[in-house]
């Protein structure tokens, strides 16, 4: 079930909102940002138990977090997202948000000949339209000098016909990132993207885990010689969500381990 904060807002921890934070890169990012001193709003779409587990781990580590559910497939996803946030944020609700991480996404596979129009629309809505609407509806909540980090993909520079539609959505995220960085520069809000490569997440489990043949095929393509973990991507996001990156904006950071250099 949705969890509410347990710490008073007077403690003055900055707030980070992470979409799709119940598992994978999103969950690792939520935990990383908590270690960096953030109170983390853990958004999830369907898996309340997984989101509750992320919140529990953060609290066990001495941080604070709360979870909230919002369906990003809806055409009014931005408004619904922030309404869901407000419903559970409690004392944190009037506080500005320092960092927003647009991580939620889906990977629907298939070459162009076989890809259904309905799947194209679904993937665009979650990966591309929802982040736009969430930022649009949330601009007034963001703290000047804060950070937006969008999760892109290494697929934008590596041709992979089986995920052509997915790649389109992530290329749009890269363009969104650059343009939004210019637009929000006067507020000192940095906007960057992180482009993961092949990462050991649930999204990749179907073809990667327990499939040594697939592993043997991809490892020679990665300069660092191993498949990345969610925590490694979360560390890059954590850097971009910190003041150490205060003079970095408008960039997509490749975090593929050097795939297909």
TrEMBL record:
<dbReference type="InterPro" id="IPR057326">
    <property type="entry name" value="KR_dom"/>
</dbReference>
<comment type="similarity">
    <text>Belongs to the short-chain dehydrogenases/reductases (SDR) family.</text>
</comment>
<dbReference type="Pfam" id="PF13561">
    <property type="entry name" value="adh_short_C2"/>
</dbReference>
<dbReference type="GO" id="GO:0016491">
    <property type="term" value="F:oxidoreductase activity"/>
</dbReference>
<keyword id="KW-0560">Oxidoreductase</keyword>
<feature type="domain" description="Ketoreductase">
    <location>
        <begin position="16"/>
        <end position="202"/>
    </location>
</feature>
<dbReference type="InterPro" id="IPR002347">
    <property type="entry name" value="SDR_fam"/>
</dbReference>
<protein>
    <submittedName>
        <fullName>NAD(P)-dependent dehydrogenase, short-chain alcohol dehydrogenase family</fullName>
    </submittedName>
</protein>
<dbReference type="InterPro" id="IPR036291">
    <property type="entry name" value="NAD(P)-bd_dom_sf"/>
</dbReference>
<dbReference type="InterPro" id="IPR020904">
    <property type="entry name" value="Sc_DH/Rdtase_CS"/>
</dbReference>
